Amino acid sequence: MRRHLLLTALTSSLLLAGCASWFEGSTQFQPTPLAAIKPLQALDVKWTLQQAAPAASFLPVYANGNVVTADADGRIRSVDALSGRVQSDVALKRGLASGVAVSGDTVLVGSQDAKLLAVNRTSGKILWEQPLTSLMLEAPQIAGDIVVVRTNDARLTGFSLADGKQQWSVVNVLPQLTVRNNGSMQAVGKEAVMVGQAGGRVDIVNPLTGNTIWQGAVATPRGATELERVTDVTSRPAFDGGQVCAVAYQGRVACFDARSGSLQWGREVSSSRGVAVDARNVYVTAEDGSIWAYDRQSGRNVWKNDDLKYRDVSGPAMIGRFVLVVDGEGYAHLLSNESGGIVGRNKIGTTGPVNQPVSLGSSALVQGRDGRLAMLNLG
Question: Has this prediction a pTM greater than 0.90?
Fold first, then answer.
């Protein structure tokens, strides 16, 4: 039986530690102090809501004017996106491992006893449940009439949204060591699901059959030890304008033609935090907190911002034409998409790590792992 190590804590320690010596100990990088800025764009906190501290595997979802959240205690909330008022609040009598996905009034979550649950979000009634082969540690994806889930044993499974009947199942082989993955799947309409994989790969999967449409090598494992060879895509790939872009931990960022899967370009950078795209660039938060912009067509480095290094910076998200990131001290920063300079800032009150913000046009949804949920707007 192969041994797999989930490197969540190790990833964080490697991010903040310098060169370690058996005799001299390790050097801890201090967070870069925030420099004063001249605000050019206001960033407002429209509303906040304090919840139980969720694991990284719980991500909020925007659906039909509401924000839907869940937590490990089995609480599912629906919040009005404009006002922040709680519309419904149900408590399941079972613990949850991950969530959420939403279709109409149905919420899909994974339970701590390894089951996929379909729940009515207003009444809390369980519409159906299906056993899984292992815990589901990331939110499911809905592609048309199919719910796609990935379990901790690297199995991808498709279920009918209507009644939960299993449609297909595919097993992937894990390397010896992997970084814990809390969310690297993203549905693209009814046609495909993008799946970031261990070993530096992104797979495009047909949700109706589970067949792989194409595979792309974001990065290739390299190094003398198993630890050096950990190269995983642990954040959601981005799709836009016929292009798929993804980034790998200890690897690189790469973009592919969405139809053929052919590699368009790749550039060396290590990130487990995610990518964002606009019409011109691909944006990446590196493991050290630096933020990079690459030209979407050529891969040319457009700019790099080092002002937030070692501040436990989130993955990037677009808010209007600006790049939004949130640091571990609860500051949200707006970066110019053209120059990378910080043009706006606001303290939103989160403490510690923040999941990659959810882009909603000129707004963005931020959830800290301390349970604080905030809706941000451009002023």
Answer: yes
In three-state form (DSSP H/G/I as H, E/B as E, the rest C), the secondary structure along 227-262 is CCCCCCCCCCCEEECCEEEEECCCCEEEEEECCCCC
Vertex 366: Cα angle to 284 and 342 (nearest 5): 50
Domains of the chain (ranges; CATH) run 57-135 (2.40.128.630), 140-158+166-179+181-270 (2.130.10.10)
CB 165 within 8 A of CB 156: no
Environment class of residue 102 by beta-carbon count within 10 Å: exposed (0-12), middle (13-18) or buried (19+)? buried
Residue 13, pLDDT above cutoff 80: no
- Helix (H) or strand (E) holding 15, with range, is helix 8-16
Strands 96-103 and 86-91: unpaired
Question: What b-and-e string marks burial along 117-135, b requiring 16 or more CB atoms within 10 Å of the CB?
Answer: bbbbbeebeebbebebeeb
Predicted confidence at residue 27, as pLDDT, reads: 59
Whether the pLDDT of residue 234 is over 50: the answer is: yes
Most confident of 10-19, 134-143, 172-181: 134-143
What 3-state class would DSSP assign to 277?
strand
Amino acid making up residue 250 = Q
Question: How is residue 330 annotated by DSSP?
Answer: S
How far does the chain reach from its first CA to its final CA, in angstroms? Answer: 55
Confidence of residue 22 (pLDDT cuts 50, 70, 90): very low
Q: Which amino acid appears at position 376 of this protein? A: L
Q: How many other β-carbons are positioned within 10 Å of the β-carbon of residue 313? A: 28
> What is the Cα 116 distance to its own chain's centre?
20
